């Protein structure tokens, strides 16, 4: 038994699901690595020393690359001064100011550790600000907020049945799931109970993100008409589609927004940001949202350094350019080999889709072959700032070998 498989057995025995993060538990063994022990630049290694060109990027947080020098150096410098204190640290102010400079809707910002809890904070703010209780959710907004029957319990996976296991029916009845770009369904909810809806929270659909050009403005108009807030889940899109996320790319400002995965190159940090008036709902005298680790300094130091790289170098442009080179190249390889898969969406974060007539088994066959050839992929795959031209070329060579292995 390999060292990686030994670790897999230990994880399965000690941890429900085999990992604290559901999406990190392997489903394609033995080809998929059971554990990863090291990352450098755009590559990772498993416990047996197998190397992979990586496009999972920690499920999205690694935007600059593993062990990115400026970020790691900032962490080391701050470690010499302490990790957390009983009072606020200057880094809280510095990073909050950076976010207010970079994000269009941000006039105030606060910090937590994960995107899901920051979204939960935003929903509480929306309810406190409006005095209303109902929430309409579009897309996957984190496990804490996967409360609506028929909503997404995990990315791309709808909850089964009318309710969600572990969610009281009374709570689930206040959360309503609506599909991406379904403005008619949103209008029906507002016609039905518009004076009770506190907010619409939207996570973009990766394959159909271009439809945001009309969808976001329509939702913005609808929420204003009915006095509800608009919340953008920018956990994936922030610092990737544009520095300021989809709100900057499409020119539509929400009342609140949540950022996390791209904010600190892998360190655990999230931010909920918004207008001064709306964020006042969690100020003194408002609803209490508080966490001991919200001001943890190593993550804030990493974020300060990461945001500086975004400002000084064309990181987002690199993600678009290298993403187009890789994913359009892979689409051509699929077509040449008769494989009914394609990458759809914006180049920094496209998703694998089946073409018409394709069997779901093709995705599994391709992913297994990709792992065998040293390329690590996910449903939504990303390039990072450390993927250079030679890395993209090598990845395409490996992926072409993988496709030829499974071509009919």
UniProtKB/TrEMBL annotation:
Q: Which family does it belong to?
A: Belongs to the class-III pyridoxal-phosphate-dependent aminotransferase family.
Q: Recite the UniProt keywords alphabetically.
A: Aminotransferase, Pyridoxal phosphate, Transferase
Q: Tell whether Transport is among the UniProt keywords.
A: no
Q: What would be an example GO MF term here?
A: pyridoxal phosphate binding
Per its record, how is this protein called by name?
Answer: Aminotransferase class III-fold pyridoxal phosphate-dependent enzyme
Kindly give the Gene3D superfamilies that the UniProt entry links to this protein.
Aspartate Aminotransferase, domain 1, Type I PLP-dependent aspartate aminotransferase-like (Major domain)
Q: Which InterPro entries match?
A: Aminotrans_3, Aminotrans_3_PPA_site, PyrdxlP-dep_Trfase, PyrdxlP-dep_Trfase_major, PyrdxlP-dep_Trfase_small
Cofactor(s) listed in the protein's UniProt record? pyridoxal 5'-phosphate
Which Pfam families has this protein been placed in? Aminotran_3 (PF00202)
């Amino acid at each position: 038994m390999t060292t990686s498989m030994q670790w897999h057995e230990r994880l399965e025995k000690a941890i429900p699901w085999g990992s604290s993060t559901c999406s990190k538990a392997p489903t394609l063994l033995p080809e998929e690595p059971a554990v990863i022990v090291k990352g450098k630049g755009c590559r990772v290694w498993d416990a047996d020393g197998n190397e992979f060109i990586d496009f999972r990027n920690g499920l999205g947080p690694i935007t600059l690359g593993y062990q990115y020098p400026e970020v790691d150096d900032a962490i080391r410098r701050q470690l010499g001064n302490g990790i957390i204190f009983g009072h606020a640290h200057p880094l809280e102010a510095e990073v909050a100011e950076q976010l207010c400079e970079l994000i269009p809707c941000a006039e105030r910002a606060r910090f937590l550790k994960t995107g899901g809890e920051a979204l939960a904070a935003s929903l509480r703010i929306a309810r406190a600000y409006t005095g209303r209780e109902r929430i309409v959710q579009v897309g996957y907004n984190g496990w804490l907020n996967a409360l609506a029957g028929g909503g997404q319990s995990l990315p791309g996976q709808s909850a089964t049945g009318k309710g969600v296991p572990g969610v009281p029916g009374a709570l689930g009845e206040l959360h309503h799931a609506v599909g991406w770009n379904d403005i008619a369904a949103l209008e029906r909810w507002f016609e039905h109970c518009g004076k009770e809806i506190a907010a619409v929270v939207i996570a973009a659909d990766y394959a159909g993100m271009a439809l945001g050009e009309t969808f976001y403005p329509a939702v913005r108009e609808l929420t204003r008409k009915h006095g509800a807030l608009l919340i953008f889940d920018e956990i994936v899109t922030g610092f990737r589609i544009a520095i300021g996320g989809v709100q900057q790319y499409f020119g539509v400002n929400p009342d609140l927004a949540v950022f996390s995965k791209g904010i600190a190159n892998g360190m655990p940090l999230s931010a909920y940001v918004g207008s001064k008036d709306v964020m006042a709902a969690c100020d003194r005298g408002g609803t209490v949202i508080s966490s001991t680790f919200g001001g943890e300094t190593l993550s804030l130091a990493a974020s300060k350094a990461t945001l500086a790289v975004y400002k000084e170098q064309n990181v987002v442009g690199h993600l678009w350019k290298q993403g187009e080179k890789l994913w359009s190249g892979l689409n051509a390889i699929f077509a040449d080999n008769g494989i009914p898969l394609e990458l759809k969406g914006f180049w920094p974060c496209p998703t694998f889709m089946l073409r018409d007539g394709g069997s779901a088994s093709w995705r599994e066959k391709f992913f297994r072959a990709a792992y065998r050839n040293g390329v690590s992929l996910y449903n939504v795959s990303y390039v990072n700032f450390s993927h250079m031209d030679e890395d993209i070329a090598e990845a395409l060579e490996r992926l072409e070998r993988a496709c030829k292995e499974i071509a009919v």
